[in-house]
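Title: Prediction job returns without error message
Component: structure pipeline
Severity: low
Priority: P3
Assignee: unassigned

Description:
Job completed but the reporter wants confirmation the result is attached to the right record. Sequence as submitted:
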Amino acid sequence: MGKVHVILWLPALLGLFVTSARAADLLTDKFPANFTFGVSTSAFPTEGAWDADGKGPSIWDTFTSDSSHVTGGGDAKQSADTYNHVDDDVTLLKDLGVSSYKFSISWPRIFPNGTKESVNQKGVNFYNTLIDKLLANQITPFVSLYYWDLPQDLQDKGGWSKDESVAWFGDYADFCFKTFGNRVKRWVTIDDPFSVAYKGHETGEQAPGVKNVSVTYKVGHNLLLAHAEAYRIYKDNYRTVQKGEVGISLSSEWYVPKTTGVSDVMAARRAMTFRLGWFLEPLVKGDYPLLMQQRVVAARGTANGLPQFSAGDKLKVKDSYDFIGLSHFTSRLVSEDAGVCSGATVGFFCDQGLKMETDLSYPKLEYRPEVNPTSERRLMGFGLLELLKHVTSDYNKPVIYVTENGLSSCGTLQDQNRVEYLREYSNNVLAAIKAGGDVRGFFVWSLLDGFDWSLGYTSKSGLYYVDMGRGERPRFPRSSATFYKKMIANNGLTDELVTYRAYPADRDVFLYDTFPSDFMFGVATSAYQIEGAWNLDGKGPSIWDTFAHNNRLASGQTGDVACDSYHLYMEDVRMLQHLGVNFYRFSIAWSRVMADGTPATTNQAGIDYYNKLIDALLAAGITPVVTLYHWDLPQALENDGGWKNDSVVDQFEAYARLCFEQFGDRVKYWITFNEAFVVSWLGYGIGIFAPGIYDPGTSPYMVAHNIIRSHSRAYHLYSNNFQAKYKGKVGITLDIEWKEPLTDSSEDAAAADRAMQFKLGWFANAIFAGSGDYPQVMRQLVDEKSKRQGLAKSRLPSFTQAEKNLNKGAYDFLALNHYTTNPVNNQPRPNSQPNYEQDQNIDTRYDPCWPDTDASWLKVNPWGIRKLLRWARDHYHNPEIIISESGRPDGEDLTDDGRIYYYKYYINELLKAIKLDGVRVKGYTAWSLMDNLEWTSGYYAKFGLYHVDFNSPNRTRTPRTSATFYQQLIKDRGFPKPASSRRVRRRSRGFHLN
């Protein structure tokens, strides 16, 4: 039969199957007036303080002490540190507007060895404090007694596989009811007993890590009896006075037959029976499902089968609930597979005789879907509706709380995928209520990021992002928190929430189109990084020669030889020809043409070198784009104070004059400075780059001031003396990450804009914005802080009016180096010390979803470049822009798919900025033509389209696959629309199981 998911009438065998509602049919009706909206957490993933104040070890503490059990390593010893952030978390809950908070009590925190003889009052006090603060804020505590964290001492005695576990749990439950029950009115005894039994005791993928198929059903049996014991204790001893309710929370996927064939439909029913019916049927009917009993006996015989309930146990277990909690996250395709286990193999899934898989036809819930085409995270909200209808119709219409529902992901704060998930799944809860289900609450998993069990910190499910990299564990709301808050306030979806988005719908859409005919593609290098020949033919030392010879680069490396382009420049030109680039951006080494940085030491051999390179480029049809200053100040000038000495402005003008005179007849694009920020801050602020000066409060501003003055002088020198003759253009290269607000708050939006002004605007505002001066926000903050720090004058210098006039409009184009994006949040620092970074009142991070590279500072985020370009368009009168550097390191291999991905999606975002946003971008420059000396990282970071063998005296260059990709992109002039495209039609949505 065809593979469809609408199951028709199979009367004799299967009952009625109908199609569920489509996600597009979102309901904007209200939930019932008394409906509970909440969020969930549990102790082990969030509390931390794993051994604080008398807490005993749990099986999860022990399990995760072996890093091989945790994806990505790490442990939960601190995690989100909710033990020390009660006030913060209650504030978050209050802000969300939830009416209830579901959390779990850590058994070993109040009974360190698991028994009532070992009460830990400090642990009790913690939960008393939490409960009291919740109630003070009109938030109902919804408390789980057991969420997987059995005291290790009890596990050492056999844990849940022992019959004694029922009594252990009864004593623990009785203590909790007695201690907290005067304020807690809704209890869950055990969360997800399936995972405890199967994953904890058969597959061993979760704590306690037991792999013993003969105990799976025994553990499940004891969990059911323990639940019933706790329920009866509460009913008999506490309910009359406390008037609370006790239930259990069961986890279940929804199972969809892969085909309409009878065998697959029966397999789906069997899957539901084994997953949900295993625990729910005894509670409702007093015994395990008959189908399950028959299958297990057939597969295993009677010896290792399902334990049998005694007559008394049946009575005890039956009806031992006031409500049923359901945790649901996804749906699965199921098909018959009698041979799933061969020979004598036994096990939970072998007993069922079926195969499960994910239906990949549903929309992916990935941050960047193209990087994970086979992702199993899919938007299948219909499954929750069908599960709720199934429980309602087959299990006597119980009271139901959806105790967990949510999406685990890589963790971006603009979590549109989680918004879509919550919108569709919560709406299917409303549909279930309208279909007659007694569903009284919906809890999002989870409030916070935490330690996601065996997935560690690689999986994040919080409405609030927790920065695990910082000891104070700060919390920040994701877009999904904003969405859920609005939904709670409206008691359901509104028209606004139906279309609510964390970011524009077109943000990640790939644009098939080509670049304008005058758009240029190029590659870049710089002198110190590739030339070598550091002291040949009259070249003087630069600050980077000195810095490297003082052992300031990785592994003591230097640029003495580097790629030896001083001798191999013709090989470089051949590489450029092979790529098909329109231009080549390179820099002139100031001390190669002026040994001490002044005209007195003009070096003809150095001039000859650049003449030969320029002529070879032009002969090959490649436009030279020349940078005058790429960080390598002549050491002689640094000895006189370098960029802190005002005299350097005159020295730079003289150097620029020499270059314009010697090369201007053939060079039509000049860049005065490369990344003035790096020179100012890394070189003279924190001293990690040459010349290595540490003075974070004052020197960066002095250096930047002189660089801006030098640029303006050089620009006007060219404009007044060379432009009419040579018809060239002069600009400046500024480096800038896009600064994205960390959260949706107006404070973070202002902080991100402030960060843009303090980095890009620091240099660009005076030149491009029209004022000739620094951004007003810089002037205000640095002036205020300087005064507060007791200084007689501001650490930010002032331009004279004449200098402002010179600065204004001193450009023909703006060149931008862009590699990555920084999320930024507001961080007031009223009493900071003199420090450029602290002057900004911001804090910066990286988004956890952005792919890493070999450079710790460079995370891959394509859409940042488009936002940057729009910001520059709006703030600087839409100037002509050249992206003068962009790229990423990607290892030694010749196959560099990561770099190809980077170029493909960054360049496509640039194309969107041109075509859709009207930004006047005229060129893109890949960094870098070849592997080179990456400054203090030495030769370890590989940015090159061409691999360079630094162990070879010939410095052999070999093209990587990214070179072939870039070559083809240039040839295609972008991204022509594919000749044909395949349209994927979504399937119908599941079935209802009667």
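Comment from assignee: result matches the submitted record. The chain is about 40% helix and 15% strand.
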